[in-house]
């Protein structure tokens, strides 16, 4: 029995990583032209069976898969970080309006300023994500009880719908912005090349380092502000570091793949269940990296299913992630424990 328990933490690492590697192979192999797994592996190691396979793998499928890995990890990490910072199980870059703020910033960049480059729109996405985070927190903390989980969720939903309305008002008066926005807004990994992936990697890397560095402080914050302060944690600095990390991770991801809602909400809860099963408990030094592995698993699964269920066309990955995450969110809200918060 003791030996089994000692193996659980190892399995917590090995199984998700193995699943992610298998999904990467499937993501590279499945599409309009299916490529068997053995040919995928041969092409990745420089021995493709044909020039067509080599071109499909390295020009189309690998950039798409790497984008799913990086953007999915960023959104999962930011979701887990937001839930820890706010001590709110409903926190999510989509639910709390951060994705909507980044989307609104991008639409402003395209429609009002004529900015079409990725680097140009990323800065507007960052500004929108940060502004929305501050606004939701200020709205959620009004009243005697302060920033409760339900109030923050309601404030985030209200701000999301407001920004959604403003975004629609802008794109409906600008045909060029509408053409670019309507496909991007569904959340998709398609039609991106390696240059786009490389352009967001510095932002995601800095955001990931900042997020992971907050893990020990997040364990202290889970005990309450007073306890965390007595342990020597500088609460303002920790929260600032977390907000900057969420802004970088969410802003860069949304700027490229669009607003994928519910990814950051679902994955941290799954990570907690797995960590509890492994006997680790709510240790954010495990939860944050595990969320960063599980989130791309979900995003790549949605992307793969989107290519298969509607051939020869595709269903955007963001649509399928929302299809999975919507019922999960409803079940989470209906939990008696959460309803009493």
UniProtKB/TrEMBL annotation:
Record-linked Pfam families: FecCD
Keyword Transport: yes
InterPro entries with a match to the protein in the record: ABC_BtuC-like, ABC_transptr_permease_BtuC
Gene Ontology cellular component terms for the protein in this record: plasma membrane
Gene Ontology terms, MF aspect: transmembrane transporter activity
Any one GO biological process: siderophore-iron import into cell
Keywords: Cell membrane, Membrane, Transmembrane, Transmembrane helix, Transport
Matching Gene3D superfamilies: ABC transporter involved in vitamin B12 uptake, BtuC
Membrane topology: Multi-pass membrane protein
Domain of life: Bacteria
Main location: membrane
Subcellular localization: Cell membrane
Transmembrane segments: 62-82, 94-115, 121-140, 152-172, 200-222, 243-266, 286-305, 317-334
Record family assignment: Belongs to the binding-protein-dependent transport system permease family. FecCD subfamily.
UniProt-recorded name of the protein: Iron complex transport system permease protein
């Amino acid at each position: 029995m003791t030996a089994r328990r000692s193996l659980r933490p190892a399995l917590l690492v090995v199984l998700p990583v193995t699943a992610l590697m298998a999904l990467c192979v499937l993501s590279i192999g499945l599409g309009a032209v299916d490529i068997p797994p053995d040919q995928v592996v041969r092409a990745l190691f420089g021995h493709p069976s044909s020039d067509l396979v080599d071109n499909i793998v390295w020009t189309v499928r690998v950039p798409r898969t790497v984008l799913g890995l990086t953007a999915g990890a960023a959104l999962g990490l930011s979701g887990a970080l937001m839930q820890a910072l706010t001590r709110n199980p409903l926190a999510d870059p989509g639910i709390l309006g951060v994705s909507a703020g980044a989307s609104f910033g991008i639409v402003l960049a395209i429609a009002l300023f004529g900015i079409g480059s990725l680097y140009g729109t990323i800065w507007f996405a960052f500004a929108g994500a940060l502004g929305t985070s501050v606004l939701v927190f200020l709205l959620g903390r009004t009243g005697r009880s302060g920033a409760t989980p339900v109030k923050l969720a309601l404030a985030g939903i209200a701000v999301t719908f407001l920004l959604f309305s403003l975004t629609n008002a802008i794109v409906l008066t600008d045909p060029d912005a509408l053409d670019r926005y309507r496909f991007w807004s569904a959340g998709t990994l398609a039609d991106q090349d390696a240059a786009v992936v490389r352009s967001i990697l510095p932002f995601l890397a800095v955001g990931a380092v900042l997020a992971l560095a907050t893990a020990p402080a997040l364990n202290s914050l889970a005990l309450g502000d007073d306890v965390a302060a007595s342990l020597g944690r500088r609460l303002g600095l920790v929260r600032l570091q977390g907000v900057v990390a969420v802004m970088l991770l969410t802003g860069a991801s949304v700027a490229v793949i669009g607003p994928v809602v519910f990814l950051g909400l679902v994955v941290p809860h799954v990570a907690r269940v797995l960590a509890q099963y492994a006997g680790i408990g709510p240790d954010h030094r495990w939860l944050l990296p595990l969320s960063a592995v599980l989130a791309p698993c979900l995003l790549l699964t949605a992307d793969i299913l989107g290519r298969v269920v509607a051939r020869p066309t595709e269903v955007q990955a963001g649509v399928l992630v929302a299809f999975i995450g919507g019922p999960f969110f409803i079940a989470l809200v209906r939990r008696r424990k959460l309803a009493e918060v």
